[in-house]
Here is the input.
Amino acid sequence: MDLVFRARRVITPQGEIAADVGVVDGRIVAVEPFIESPNVVHLADDEVLLPGLVDTHVHVNDPGRTEWEGFETATRAAAAGGVTTIIDMPLNSIPPTVEVAALEIKRKAAANVSVDVGFWGGIIPGNLADLKPLHEAGVFGFKCFLLHSGVDEFPAVTKAELEAALRELATLDALTIVHAEDAHTVRESEPDYPGFLASRPREAENRAIADVVELTRKTGARTHILHLSSSDALHIIEGAHRDRLPVTAETCPHYLTFTAEEIHDGQTEFKCCPPIREAENREALWQGLREGVIELVVSDHSPSTVELKAGDFATAWGGIASLQLGLPAVWTGARSRGFHLTDVVRWMATHPARQVGLESKGAIEVGKDADLVVFAPDQKFVVDKNALHHRNPVTPYHGRELHGVVRQTWLRGKEISTTHGKLLRRGEA
Ligand SMILES: [Zn+2]
Here is the structure.
């Protein structure tokens, strides 16, 4: 063995066990009671060994809007937060990842990364012919919007355009991920939070999700609902599961942590689309996780500059920065509701890896990459936005007390201290 992790608490697909985790050439080769090795990493009594998280929803914004984030800062933040793999969204970078040439530009921009990085492609009006080449070039699937995306170079598709794309992608068995808010239901926002919330009602999500389910049924393509906020749509997704349609859903740490009632005017660090809703909605989302209707929790890390994030709720950038904080935020909410770390690992590592076909990621078991996190679940800390690795110090978690400290992050058997992440292609990892 090159290395052995010895822990009283190891989170495996079979549950929590005491074990030694043996590593050779960056892969897990044994999970057993006792392994002889000269190199043993002893976990302390208050530490748990988790698989590295897989965050399939990250906006790195590089190249083109590198002042918003960037591959070096984003992947450093990911590593510090226990995330060992990210899949980068196709928009907010310039150019957006809607053709192979743009993907190659992005791969060059991601020369120095601390964690493993994969890429989503994008569906926009007119790029139907680019989807197959992007798929073959190794993107993990395709994102589209059903309403204005927030940036003009990544336009939304109509329902008819989405249907055409799904027919094409069904032939490739490629995954389509959808920002599901209905363009005809969303209105202009008012400057205050109640006005912003009312402008993007649950009905906008419910309608768009019903459309995605209908098109999934029609085309047979695999689809995924991004950042679910409206708990009213849970029964639509549940119905799709009952009908055995290939539809999955994710939600995000902020929808599970914050409530509309606590957001005051001017606190635009809380602005995201779809919006954070009422306390009762938040509890229904936790229930959706409990019942398995929602299978993934991913960050939707979508930062901007401090200037663009300021102002009022009508004008500020809509996106929340939380890549480094997703694990403690979700664990804090989960533990207070009686969930176990095995649940958090399933939502944030195992299911996201499975979703994008990363067979070597997402669990502590023989054959997987030795992507490992030493986590102290009972240690508390207060979030200081200035101490995070995100490029811009804006986050709604600032000043909040969270449970769970990431003490070490290991990528393929090496503790992350330098940039030795690699770029991933669908089907190869
Ligand atoms: Zn997003």
About this structure: The CA atoms of residues 11 and 191 lie 45 Å apart.
